[in-house]
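Collaborator request, handled under Task 6.
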Amino acid sequence: MIRYLSVAALIAASATIAYAQGATGTAAITERKAAMKAVGGANKGLTDMAKGDVAFDAAKAAAGFQTMETNFVKAKALFPDDSKTGGDTAALPAVWEKKADFAAKMDKAIADAKTAATASKDEASFKDQHKQVVSSCGGCHKDYRVPPAKK
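Structure tokens returned to the collaborator:
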């Protein structure tokens, strides 16, 4: 019995260490998809505001951009080498083939979202900032993401 408990403790400790070292494989894919879904959700609200479907609100704009920034940071760390395939990933092999360029584009998106959160003081500045952030998203998606299927 003690032997089984020792093995269970060893497995639990190993799992804790693996988690502490960061997500790998399909777990990384799942986590980065969740982070990017949060980015998309925040951007949906910002796009509605930019189009005038929702009234401009500086606090909501800042919060949306902060959500994007936070999740870009999370996602950037979720591309380990063992997450190239599986988990229904939409990441192209170029992510790993051009790591420096990919990292630079993620850093730009992070910086743009951070800037937008504080620079969106009125509707005009918000719309300019939103365009910049969306441009950063598109630049990365163009080179590093499988295009979504057309409906």
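The cover message to the collaborator said: "The CA atoms of residues 6 and 12 lie 10 Å apart. Helices lie at 2-20, 25-50, 58-76, 94-97, 99-119, 123-144. Please let us know whether this matches your experimental observations."
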